[in-house]
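Fold it.
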Amino acid sequence: MIFKFHSAPIILGFAAFFLVSATVNSPALSQEEEDEKKPEKWDVASPPDPAYQIHLDVDEGTWMSVDVSPDGSEVVFDLLGDLYTMSIDGGEARALTEGIPWDMQPRYSPDGKFILFTSDRGGGDNIWVMDREGKNPKAVTSESFRLLNNAAWGPTSETIIARKHFTSGRSLGAGEIWLYHRTGGKGVQLVKRPNDQKDLGEPVFAPDGKSIYYSQDSTPGPVFEYSKDSNTQIYVVKELDLETGETEVVLSGPGGAVRPTPSPDGKLLAFVRRVRFQSTLFLRELESGREWSIYSSLDRDMQETWAVHGVYPNMAWTPDGKSIVFWAGGKIRRIDVSSKETKVIPFRVKVSKTLVEGLRFPVDVSPSSFDVKMLRWVEVSPVGDRVVFQALGHLYVRDLPEGTPRRLTGQTDHFEVYPSFSRDGKWITYATWDDEDLGSVKVVSADGGEGRSVTSIQGHYIEPRMSPDGKNIVYRKIQGGGLRSGLYGQDPGVYRIDREGTSIPVRVTRNGSGPHFADASDRVFFTSSSGGKRVLRSSDLSGNEVRDHLRSENATELRVSPDGKWVAFIERYNVFVLPLLSTGGVQDIGPKTGSLPMKRVSKKAGEYVHWSGDSSRLHWSLG
């Protein structure tokens, strides 16, 4: 087993702290050696991995965006990361792009000279423009983090709008609409995301260029939720007036509305709505508000999930406004909006594509032995002669400074959690868990053996700690539910019981965690929440004479030293130490608090902070 634990000696009276470190000096490298060490710049089109060829001959595709040329003679579409064009009557498609970069969502410029598309050829999804014949591709945007897609032209072929992707606490975040000039620039924000998790995208200009349409997840609250009900409303279509800056909802109601696509004369708006579970192509007459369906066999849209690249693939009107060309059921289709007559525009893609071998590492799914690299509840004994920790559900001890980890107990009936040493280092108290029998609090010799139960009623127990005189044990009882049984979860809080388990447990406090002792056996410290802050409190063993000592905005673990003179706490993953003074009131603490001398003792991060028995050393674990 591999583990690290860190400690810092404390010089009492000076509030000075030291972290032991070592520096290894290596000989300097020559410039040629430095250059050899520099990795080659990554090229999406030419990755340094084994490649091979596959041959495609297909007449169907998946999730294909299509567009119609301004003269109505051609269609352009994406298929498996490349762009193709062909006659609007169908036939064998001609490749406009090829290779490993992923190209998608092509759109002809209104003047018919260019094609706009999304590509990762520059290292991430950005907006590109190329000649109609597929030559001279140039990047319009150069984002390396807030990547873009779903671009659409303005009516003059000079401006472009696109969806920019933002993330925060969840990787599949939300979108914003940004405006760009065809020749480049950093862009101008048109529509700001209302939050970080509800999607927004599929932008398109109105034919007169005075407004833009886009779709937006309108479900209540700022947090994305799965399994939403599409029978009500998930997405709506909004319109932003580019002259006044005002936004209004133009499409809403049961089944939602996505992929707004205005007709060339601006009188009709095509969109996708869910009818029960069936995605359906609808039209809306903007002047009257009348809506009707024209095609009911679309593929399933993505309203219930994140739709980073759009809720449904791009579709397009023919220039005369009489037909709509769209993808469904693997085919490119054309529908006459008056008669609703639909026909397939047949295509054939016959090409060779280069693929790169996937990067894989051999993994032994059931090795006979392996190194444990994450230890839990690491605690050094008060005299520093051994350490206890949990790994793979069981407790281990190891002599210090050198020693071999060994099981503390030999049982395999339940999991062992939350170990802690008695003040004299002779005993270890811990909690157990079993899915059927639930949990208990136990005591075992630090030399190992069979654990003895202190609690007589099964429950959900954590954080046991023995008093300095060894007569009592405090622990926390928590509620069940979720992955654990909901039984025996009543009356949570911090409890006290005698070490032999002969007394009836007494609840010390309902609101508390991390119970522990300082220099006295008749007073227990614990952390509570009050007014949105964490408060270090203490009380007698019956929960009376409660005192507030310290208060913090963000501290997670607070531990008083055995002599009662110091307190260590963890905030934003790092360990801090400061003196604990009796003032009769509560002191606010934090990394930037200047009222008391304070020191950050961890270099990178730390957890499971605890003291040596004489309060001269502080221990924590890393990794």
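Residues 383 and 581 are 25 Å apart (CA to CA).
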